[in-house]
Amino acid sequence: MPTRGMPERPDLEHFRRQARTLQRAVRAGEPGAVARIAHGHPAPPAGPALPLSAAQLVVAREYGFPSWPRLTRYVRTVAEHGWDTALGAVPAPDPADEFCRLACLTYSREDGPERWAQARELLRRHPDLTAGSIWAAAAAARPDDVARLLAGRPGLASAPGGPLRWRPLFCLVYSRADPGVEAERVLTAARLLLDAGADPDDGYLFDGLPSPFTLLTGVFGGGELGRVRQPPHPHWRALGTLLLRAGADPNDAQTLYNRMFEPDDSHLELLFEHGLGTGDGGPWKARIDTLPTPAEMLRVQLRWAVEHRQAGRVRLLAEHGVDLAAPFTGDGPPWAPGDGRTPLELAELYGDAAIAAYLLERGVPRPAPDAAHDLIAAAFRADAAAVHRIAAEHPGAAAEARRRRPGLLVWAAARAPGETVTLLAGLGFDVNAFGRGDAPAEGAWETALHHAAANGDAGLVRRLLDLGADPGLRDHRFGATPLDWARHFAQDATIALLSD
Hints:
By secondary structure, this protein is mainly alpha-helical. Helices cover about 50% and strands about 0% of the residues. It contains 28 helices and 3 strands. A hairpin with a 5-residue loop joins strand 2 and strand 3. Helix 1 (about 10-25) packs across helix 3 (about 50-60), helix 18 (about 345-350) runs antiparallel to helix 19 and helix 23 (about 410-415) runs antiparallel to helix 24 (about 420-425).
């Protein structure tokens, strides 16, 4: 398990210096350095004469890589495929470069319709800006310009350029400049670039992070800012099919992440048609072997779907052979830790009777009784009688439930009925606890009142205030109060209530 976060734009010399520093510290007998070797080396060398290779192995393992060569290979991959997002925030003096910058999804807070409208206006004022730039021609989906530029220099199809240092097909796929662009223009330009040697698996590592943003990622869009600001390509199905038929690997972890927040499964259906969940993970898995396997990617999707009441997605994953019975173990992502629970346990725990029934119909075995689990499950079903019965029969269950999930009330406020919040507060869960509302995982982020305010749920806000919620608490990420959250999301009902 990694103990250090990967720096942005990692540099191999930076890691070499860390290894040399660790080696010198061990040879000097520094206790902290000696402890790092003992913890991080599978067979710690005896004595103070630590070889550099041993220090390098420990440094690599601290960053989540099994060996020093694997770390160095990753750093070289970043050097070749890195995406410096800071470039997208810097206006370009050249109109063609500025058009590319404004037209394309950058997965920053700047994404959105206003930015793309600026790109369209720039193209209107400079209609010939695509004549000399294949990157702008691709972003504008102008196949005549693409064909003419490739005729003179076919190698341009694989050349990085423009303000983001992307290859042309990436500019085409990530462009959102014109929501009404004709499909034939887009597909013709894409075919021209592919025929000239563009890689259908092309991608970049967002500030050196290990999950690649590929062409498919851009096709399907989505992300944490939602469909308005990070929409799919206007012709995502046809363009995605073209790339998949050209050889793009369907096991795209970033696509699955970006699209998992909404219940729409159309992206999964297309990817399954082309082999999602099969194979060895493709060229990106070969470059970065710490990426999840295809099977692991789909298990992450299953967990999210179960915890977020996406019954259709659970069925779709089941129909394509995803394991429904095995517990979630190992080092999962922070919002879905490998805590040993099965999909059925999670469905029952958070009160989703429909998904639980479906899993039982598929032959998933029922879990062993667990009083703390059953108590939380009864609260999420808003079954007050069962809550009181279990608490009476198992006097220690409430304390054990609070020990396991101290921030649970935040998740309940974001996802469950108000009665669940009241029942959990009655069991001793802290109404002012900090937790996460995006996933049922611990993390000191915000309070239940923040989520009720942001969701515009005036009834739940009143309920939480009656239970003792403090409206002056600030969340730990943005330093904002619940009223600030209500204002940010323009929720008039909770703004009025919290302003009083």
